[in-house]
Amino acid sequence: MDVTDRSSLPRRPLPRSVDELPPISRDFVQVLDALLPELGFELTTTQRTAIEDHARLLLAWNDAINLSGLRTPADVARGHVLDALVAVPALRAIARGRLDLLDIGSGGGYPGLPLAVALPSPRAALVDSIAKKAAFLGAAAAAAAAATGAKISALNERAEDLADEPDHRQGWDLVVARAVGTVSECAELGLPLARRHGHVVIWKRASDQPARAALDQEIEGARRIVQAAGGSGIRVVELRAGERLGLPGCLLVVIRKTRPTPDRYPRSPGERKRGRVT
Fold this sequence. Notes:
The chain is an alpha/beta fold and 278 residues long.
């Protein structure tokens, strides 16, 4: 009988390069092959390689670090990759060629890394405050750069702190957020980082009337902070291709930056929780 205390054994280092990994699962490939044509644009061979390499790293790291609740290759293909890429035509129309991209609370690199590759973005950054997640993002960004030459960086910082840095405050065309918080929270974190005439874009799902009513209420509750932080209006862009991908109710909440953000924003987490906007 093997009585080795495996908890005392050193953990095998997590892979930093896709050269250490097996090819992507056939299940992942089949989902993308079947559904990518529904998006209305094509990926180049190198873009597809970068996206697959990102997923290979995610699946390899996910058992050790909780990067995603999606554990199978097919689920990652649909729930992460396609959920990001379905927004590409809308983002191209919204940004009108201004495509520098910052993904706040990036976690496993979605939606930011596939977007940076597919748009493509001349410059992109993936932000996460948790060091282990930022380490993963660095490995994924390096893999994407090796495949496509994309300029993607990984930043181990809080969005609040990033907004205090001159290189980042009001320095990005597109600030994207998925599963980060409410529309109010994402607006207050994102608008200080967006350039004037840039946009904050928030991923949401509302596949039935109660969910849409709840989102409408969330949007209404965000209007004061959007106005205070330099935004002008909030609009919802429905991503109808999501239905064909098995992702019903996909939509983007889009906030345009029209004025400089006052220095007092973003507020501290405690101040945001109290909810008072001055």
